[in-house]
Amino acid sequence: MLKIIMDWLRESFDLASLMIFITINAYLLFIDLPSLERQKIQGEAKIIKYLGWGGIASYLGLIILHILG
Amino acid sequence: MPKINDRIDNLTLFFAIVAIIVETGLLVAPRVLAEEAGASAWLSVIISFFPAMAAAFLMVRLSQLFPGEEFTAYSRKIIGKWGGVALSLFFASYWIINNGRIVRSFADIIKTTLLFRTPLEIIMLSFLIVAAYLARGGIKAIARFCVIAFIISIPIGIILVLTTYQNWDFSNLLPIMEKGWPKVILAGLLVIGQSEGLESILFLLPFVKKPQKSLSYSLAGVVFASSLLFLVVLATLLNFGVTETVRLTIPGISLIQSAELPGRFLERLGSLYITIWILIVFPTVVAFLYLPSIVLAQTFKLPEPRPFVLLLIPLVYLIAIIPPNLITVFRLSETMQWINTGAILILPLLLYGIARLRGLKPGGNGC
User: Fold this and answer.
1) Residues of A whose CB is below 8 A from B314
2) What is the pLDDT of residues B22-35, one digit of tens each?
3) Taking the CA atoms of chain A, what radius of gyration do you get in angstroms?
4) Which of B137, B168, B201, B320 sits most deeply, having the most CB atoms within 10 A of its CB?
5) ipTM for the complex shown
């Protein structure tokens, strides 16, 4: 089951789109997050931090899957 | 309650409603309706005017029961905390799925008409990223863009459709009611399903400066969008007849491609219009990125919806990339039509009915 899902995800996201999504998450973490912290919106900043890093980790995982074939 | 700076006026609300409702469905609708109602598809559009206006009326009235409050807040008052959260999450996922479908059909149409060698992924991602950029600008920026898109694209679209008049054959509208009333009424409900974005009235009204005067503007927006659909469906049937309309994958484009200006001083108007048509689809995609973001932010009591816009891009992209071809996209659209009809017609009716049964009166809910 997990293999089917991973294969499907790998087919759906190509390398170029994964790189773009990593860039989007990096934007969230390095531009939006400091702005939220400056505005003292701590709860939301925490959620964005988790989602941002979680997203980058997942996209990197998919890139590794692509490279491994 | 939205910030004072994030307010739009009623005229802008009218433009926003039209710009959000009109999207890729407008080009495909003549085929879907002709399949269902035959030569009387144009009658189905007229029939759909009334439930669409009733839905808009209920949405405005529902919103006026809770002036200045967002949907996520007052839906909790009407159907309880968890019901409200579930309904908000339903709308968020509904927009995300519809957005994926719209982005995919948009990219397919662009690929088959303009950018033959550009990969679908590039068209979709570039479109989504630009849409997200605008969506992060907030409701005012989106509303201003809707006004610009409306002023540039709608008049040109109407002129192009009307220039096909040389090919109009009124015998194509016969026989009337060939498939019977039930089919025509059913097709009328399908038209409502093609008008996704109508429910955005519920979510836009809290941003309006004078919501007590929004009813006429909202109804005008719905009537204008429905009239555009009526014009496209009627012109397509008059041009091609039912048999050919049903065979065309995207009849709206074939209609525009058959347009010729008198004197033939401009040719290939189809390509010109497709370029302008991008402006019509863009506000819908932007709104369907922005609305789930504010709903998610409000549901989880987060003050800033902007980061969610970016987080939604991969999700919309994934939904857009799943269908293997345009036919599957159209099948997905046909399934979504019934969900859209429910979200537009039944949910506001239920919410308004429950609110009135519970004795919630206009302006009398502690606001």
Assistant:
1) 13, 21, 24, 55
2) 877 788 888 888 88
3) 14
4) B201
5) 0.85
Name the pLDDT band for A38 (thresholds 50, 70, 90): confident
Structure tokens of B330?
């159209």
Reduced to 3 states (helix: H, G, I; strand: E, B; else coil), residue B8 is strand
Q: Are the Cβ atoms of B121 and A16 closer than 8 angstroms?
A: yes
Global confidence as pTM: 0.89
Neighboring chain A residues of B321 at a CB cutoff of 8 Å: 12-13
Residues of A in contact with B305 (CB under 8 A): none
Model pLDDT for residues B251-286, shown as the tens digit of each residue = 888 888 777 766 666 666 677 778 878 888 899 999
CA distance B195 to B44: 13
Chain A / chain B CB contacts < 8 angstroms:
45
SS3 A40: coil
Which residues does chain A have within 8 Å of residue B310's beta carbon, measured at their own beta carbons? 24-25, 27-28, 32
Angle at B334 between CA B274 and CA B347, to 5 degrees: 105
Cα separations in angstroms, A50 against A21, A25, B36, B83, B311: 15, 11, 48, 27, 12
Amino acid type, B32: V
Length of chain B as a residue count? 367
Tokens of B257: 């491609």
